[in-house]
Write a structure and sequence with these properties.
Length: 496
């Protein structure tokens, strides 16, 4: 493709069908998220295990419940920071630069974690939080910019994009999991760093195929509004520093209290942000009307991700302690079970995308797609009830239980996340395009904030009761969304 053709394609992506019938820019973003997920989920596959490993064996010596709770708080922070990443993209950096700078920050974070010291682990996690907050909401926004709102390829495009995510989700735990559990955890973190570096390189090389501005924000505020916003951000940051400083000086700043504070913020942030959007003069009456049904979809995402994110904490620990890891006498890392989720989504995403294209205007309403995904998420945990019932002592279960659970969860994830991201880009108020995608990620922050408290019960309750209560709650939420379907279809129009 010549430079002039590439420019015309970026200006009119609706006329570009060069990547499996989709704009070529989707391939660039597909690769970016593939490598970002390779690094992030490769590291995540061994993070909780690294937390629970004894100090003598190179870990941090946390209990299972504490490790799961700290992991959830870390994940919460990633999605809370995504709000700031969305704001920076909308007002200062633009989506392209936000993704680029975020990727660089993530890579440096993983390189820091490759250094075998506790202090560098926390530094690395901090850099990954900042970098993912910049990258995550904005790369999805760039996907949305490739399609017109009425383009029927949109949902299918997000499904293909999500397939790229899950290729990384499959490969990351395989590579980092093997290195981490067989050689050393910091070797696994090094693999994550190299993967993110590949992602940055291919993103820069493919930038000419992307839509939208690449040299700055598309909705930059006035100088006075910018100064006012920066003062507010500075004041908020100073307040956080003072709060934690006072708690530290008082000798009460424990790991448990830090987790509780993060959980509280995960609840307050979406409440405050929804209130801001509903009151903003930059949001039109029609846009405000579509935000109301979006609250229901937001809640559905919270319920589903309460289960999904436990794939990397409680389910990971269940596999470590009780799953069969022998294959014809050869023992593989327990973290490899986490790759099943990526395999399932890679295999199922094209089928889902093809189904939506084939059905066209007859495909289910977005709210029903999301509801089906939520129900499948709940069922994936209910599968673990018979798998763990009447087990005592040092018991071992067949790996098929985990494999089936992850396949069901993977299908649910495709239905919910691809539809949810697509709906968000359709419903988003024009003045808050990237920030609205960050609002979707706030649902993930809230799910992790709740999870940080829920996982404390893991090991306190019996396994059948723990997985049964979680699964049943999520299924009930999915059924409630289906019951609200007529109202959702009416109030979300013309979005379908």
């Amino acid at each position: 493709m010549s430079a002039s053709e590439a420019t015309r394609t970026a200006e009119d992506p609706a006329g570009d069908h060069s990547f499996f019938g989709h704009p070529r820019g989707l391939l660039t973003l597909f690769g970016t998220e593939m490598w970002e997920r390779f690094s992030y989920l490769g590291m995540t596959a061994i993070l909780t295990l690294y937390f629970t490993e004894s100090v003598a064996d190179g870990g941090m010596g946390m209990s299972d419940g504490t490790a799961s709770s700290v992991y959830a708080a870390y994940s919460t922070m990633i999605y809370l920071v995504s709000v700031g990443g969305g704001w920076l993209a909308d007002r200062i950096l633009g989506a392209y630069r936000s993704v680029l700078y975020g990727g660089v920050c993530i890579a440096f974070g993983h390189y820091a974690m490759a250094v075998p010291t506790t202090s560098m682990t926390w530094v690395g996690l901090g850099l990954i939080i900042i970098g993912t907050g910049l990258l995550k909401p904005n790369v999805s926004t760039l996907v949305g910019k490739l399609y017109a709102t009425e383009d029927e390829r949109r949902d299918a495009g997000f499904a293909l994009y999500y397939m790229g995510i899950n290729i990384g989700a499959f490969l990351g735990p395989l590579v980092a999991g093997w290195l981490g559990q067989k050689i050393g955890y910091h070797w696994g973190f090094s693999a994550a760093a190299i993967g993110m570096t590949f992602g940055i390189v291919q993103y820069v090389l493919g930038r000419r195929h992307l839509a939208g501005r690449q040299d700055g924000a598309e909705a930059a505020p006035s100088a006075e509004a910018m100064r006012r916003s920066l003062r507010l951000i500075a004041a908020g940051a100073a307040a956080v520093v003072v709060l934690f400083g006072v708690l530290a000086l008082a000798g009460v700043l424990t790991m448990a209290l830090t987790v509780d504070i993060v959980s509280a913020v995960s609840v307050l942030a979406p409440v405050a942000y929804f209130a801001f959007l509903f009151r903003s003069p930059q949001v039109t009456t029609d846009e405000r009307g579509r935000l109301r049904p979006y609250l229901v979809l937001f809640g559905a995402s919270v319920a589903f991700n309460l289960v999904l994110f436990q794939s990397y904490s409680t389910m990971n620990l269940l596999a470590l302690n009780h799953a069969n890891t022998a294959f014809f006498g050869w023992h593989f890392p327990s973290s490899w079970y986490g790759s099943v989720l990526g395999v399932a989504e890679v295999a199922l995403a094209p089928a889902v995308a093809a189904t939506w294209v084939r059905l066209g205007h007859r495909q289910p309403h977005a709210s029903n797609k999301i509801a089906y995904g939520v129900i499948l998420g709940g069922l994936s945990f209910l599968i673990m009830v018979p798998a763990t019932t009447n087990r005592t002592g040092d018991w071992v279960m067949s790996g098929w239980w985990l494999i089936i659970s992850y396949i069901v969860l993977g299908l649910g994830d495709i239905l919910l996340e691809t539809t949810g991201m697509s709906v968000t880009t359709k419903i988003a108020p024009v003045a808050f395009a990237s920030q609205a995608m960050a609002l979707w990620f706030l649902s993930l922050a809230l799910a992790n904030g709740i999870q940080a408290q829920v996982v404390k019960l893991y090991g306190e309750l019996s396994d059948p009761l723990y997985f049964g209560l979680n699964g049943a709650f999520v299924v009930l939420v999915g059924l409630a969304v289906i019951a609200a379907g007529p109202w959702l279809r009416r109030t979300m129009a013309p979005v379908h």
